[in-house]
Amino acid sequence: MNSPRHLRHYLIACLLLAGSLFSASALAQLTVYVVRHGQTDWNKDGRIQGGTDNPLNTTGREQAAAMGRLMAEVKVDTVYVSSHQRARQTAAVFEGRAPIVAMDELRERFFGKFEGANDKDAAIMTDWNKRRFTWTDDMEGGETLESQSRRAEAALRQIREKHKDGGTVVIVGHGGINPLLVSHLLGVPPQEGASAINQGNDEIYRIELPKNGTAAIWKLIARNKLNEL
Known about the structure:
The protein is of the alpha/beta class.
């Protein structure tokens, strides 16, 4: 398996190559914006959220609104969203602009006995960090990473089947499912992507999938996040 460092180099290379690969926009078969939902109280408290269906908090609603403003000029064909309410609340900024389709395949992984734990539960967190990227570990009553990866693949197959002629779609998901989606879109081994990609609550990835050639990824940065350049 390639190392996380290799993945970082791959993403940087895609950014540097983007200008030459996509100077002719007609080459782009499909553009996919991968968005993580806004903050919840459990995100704020550092709790393992997984399959627990929490709503956005005030900061999360503000992040969703800011995402909507950042993408205001993007013509979107369809928004695909996890059926968890925190994702649906984030995707609501696209209401009236594009159809919004909820997909159970995009739900976050359920972490079994680890749901709700944070750094106050040091022993549990140590165990979770050791096991969370193990391919076949169901986290004692939860879902395996392998199963979640298959769900991500199934979601992308459905989406690409519906957009054979290209276009622009938005996927609103979670901190666990999104790295798997990105991995499958870029051709990165999903275990590598799951452990190396860490998308923040207010981050947006744009992935270009050309008819011929190599996929490329960008991270969209708002003006108040210029320090991330």
